[in-house]
Amino acid sequence: MGSEINKTRPVVVVSSDALGRLPLRLIAPITEWKDHFKGSIWHVRIDPDGRNGLSKVSSIDTLQLRGIDLSRLVKKLGTVPSTVMEELVAAVAAVVEYQ
């Protein structure tokens, strides 16, 4: 399937809890940060800290947004600060050319 990501990895749940009755969540996968991601509008850098549960500098890949069944969410690693969520929303808006 080309460049689609097909392995287990951490994710950011993007969808609202208000959708709680649906057994689906919209997620953005997290991958290890690469220097060539710098300047790519769809990669949001996230540094490891005590709140997010990450062990290395990573990237939230907004081009890989997808809906997944709740059963695929294994465990909560942590939380993402509002500043990173704002960058994530801006990256998605840029990717879909929303102004």
UniProtKB/TrEMBL annotation:
Assigned keywords, A-Z: Hydrolase
The enzyme's E.C. designation: 3.1.-.-
Listed Pfam families: PemK_toxin
GO BP of this protein: mRNA catabolic process; rRNA catabolic process
InterPro entries: PemK-like, Plasmid_toxin/cell-grow_inhib
Enzyme class (EC, first level): hydrolase
Keyword Hydrolase: yes
Protein name: mRNA interferase
Native organism: Candidatus Nitrospira nitrificans
